[in-house]
Each structure stands twice: as C-alpha cells, then as structure tokens.
C-alpha cells in the first residue's frame, strides 16, 4: 500500500508538470532562450537567395531566426599601367547583351562605387584603340536592395569562375594579340586548369577560330559571345579585364602564381603540340644545316632584295625558310615551322613575335630600319627575348640601306639628324621611319653578319 501511495504521489507531480509545459515553452520562446540554428539551403550557400528569403511574417515559425546571407565582394585595380581589372566573388550575374555584371548583396557596396565601368583590353594608355573596345558595366547591389535594385534572375548557373575579355583592339596584329590578349589571358585564367568560362566582348569568330588551340588550352568550355546573347549567367566569381605586366612579357614578381615567359612558352608548345623544346647546337662537320626562318613583310618595311638575302644566308650554311604573310597567318602550321628552326629573323614588325614558338636557346635576329630606331625596336622585340630563354642579335640598317634615299636628299634631317624628326612627335616618326620606308640590304655587309651568326650558333 505504501508503494502504491508513493506511486500516486509522483504521478500527481508529473501531471502538474504536463499542465505547466505550454507555459514554459511560451516563456522560452518569448525570452529567446533557445539556440538560433539556421540551415543554409544550397542556393543560400551560393549566395543566390534574395536578402528577404527565409524570413516570414510574425506568424511564421522562423520569424525570429533569420537565415544567414552570403555577402559578395567586388574589388578593382585601376592603378596598373597596362590594364584596368575588377574581381568579384559571391553572387555574380553576367548579362551579355547590355554588357553588365551584377554583384549581388555586395558587402563592398558604397553609393559612390555602385557602378563601375571598364574596357577589358590590356592597352589602356592608348585612348584611340580603347575607344574601339566595348565597355563593361559592373553594378553592386546592396544587401537590402529594394524592388528597383533587384538584379535579373539567373538563366544559367555555372560552377566555375568567369573571365571577361575583349577580342577587339589590335586584333589582326600578332604582336598585339599576344601582348594585349593572350599573355594577359594566361596570367588571369591559367591557374584554373581549364575550369574557367571565358566570355568575350567585341566577339570576332575568325579571331576565336585562329587562336582556338590556345583558348582550348585555357578553358574546357567554348568561349561565350557576350554581345549576342540575352542570357543571364551566374557565377561564383569573375574577373573583368585581364592581368597584364609589360609588352610581350611577364614580370614574375607580379604574377600571383609565379608565371614567367618560360612557363608561358611551355604552355604555347603544349597547346600546339610542338615537339622541339630546345635547340641542340649543330656541328659544322656533321653536314646538317641550322634552319633559319626569314619573316617577309609585304607592306611597310619590306626587305626589297630578299632573294639576295636568302642566297647569302644559304651560301653561308643555313637552310633558309622564307615565310610571307600567308605562311605566317596560318598559325597552326607556322607554329610548327618556327619550332623546327634554330633562328628567326625579320625586319622590325609583328611577325617577330613568332619567336614564341622557337625552341629554348633559339636565336632572334631583328633587322632595325634606318632612323635611330634602336631603342623602340629593342623595347618591342629585343628586351623580351632573354626572359623567354632565347638569344638576341640585331642588324641595324645604315643610311645606305633604306628607300628613304629615293624620297629625301642626303642633307635632309632624315639622314643628318634623325632625332630631330623624333622630336617632332610620334606621328612624324611613324610616317617616315616606321611606315614610310623599306630596307635594301648591303649584301656584302649582310653576308658578313650572317657568317658571324653561323659561327655563333654552331660548333666544330
């Protein structure tokens, strides 16, 4: 009986607790004593949920537990001499036709930088060419944007970063394509090992086709034409504009990944499946001739006596391969031709940029036209050579080796004081010395140079 009465006593206490339970729950809820735990959905983790999503009215069970929101970030660098760039991460939406990038729920939002514009081409100091490049607008959307600030909804979601660049500018000049687009693309996109989506403004199908092997080596996905599609593509991060350091070169200390022109040339050889990584010295007693490819121009700065120059090179001991504009423009084929050669030679011009395909320890020979052009010619095609693992030589034309003799008397400043022409401005230099002359080699002098070159690159 005692046990039975004990059981009843405890049972009464339990019943009382059950009656008090609703009151206790109400007290806990009102005093916010429960831990606030919110589970992110997949969309929330990628930052694709509107700022108000997950919040309900006062009758909702999660009204006191707001879902965490991933904030996006935008940062830009306008201090680089070569290019302007912006990087962003979080909820990034790219709308092609209006060339607009939305950075949604941007923690970096400020009213004064809510809209940023740049032209994604790495030659920003040349205003004239930059005006030919389409402008891209980046809009930062604040975390609590109203209806008027809502970005467009995603049409397609990508799980890889985006890189936005332009195929405009000097897109038909091989030197500029390498300097202003391809090397900067390598610096910006190579680190993703193909898992990156390239988007091009000023989209030029022929350009994309010409450089398809390089583009395919950078990205596993076809390049998107931003100009023609109305799709809103969403990315976890993006780069607008390309990292760039210098003309036809890379400054290793500025590269986030320690890239160099040696690693870039390895990348190029891989992209084109070039088989010859390094020049092996040719023995003069072996009977084998070193190969020399001579780049021939057809507009300004032609080599007017090219046939005699080829003969001189052949008689000295070279196997000379003549390459005109049609040969050089077939990039897939010509990359292999250049890679098969020990020496690449030509008058100052874009064709010399094909040195990129030479094997390591190859030799670049620049023929510098008359007119005190040594410094600008070296800047473009002399200084970049050594960082590529190549050797550089130059042949500087004399006053007797120019067709300017047919236009100006020998007592004109063009011959007596070329620097006086330089002081008149770039247009004068361009019209007279760069675009206004051809080269007529003194074959006896040129043959002596070629003999020295042959001795320098061969062994006993």
TrEMBL record:
Membrane topology: Single-pass type II membrane protein
KW Glycoprotein (keyword) present: yes
InterPro entries: Glyco_transf_61_cat, Glycosyltransferase_61
Pfam family membership, one: Glyco_transf_61
Residue ranges of every copy of the Glycosyltransferase 61 catalytic domain listed in the record: 174-365
Gene Ontology CC: Golgi membrane
Pathway annotation: Glycan metabolism
Keyword annotations of the record: Glycoprotein, Glycosyltransferase, Transferase
Primary residence: Golgi
Keyword field contains Hydrolase: no
Molecular-function annotations in GO: pentosyltransferase activity
Subcellular location: Golgi apparatus membrane
UniProt protein name: Glycosyltransferase 61 catalytic domain-containing protein
UniProt lineage: Eukaryota, Viridiplantae, Streptophyta, Embryophyta, Tracheophyta
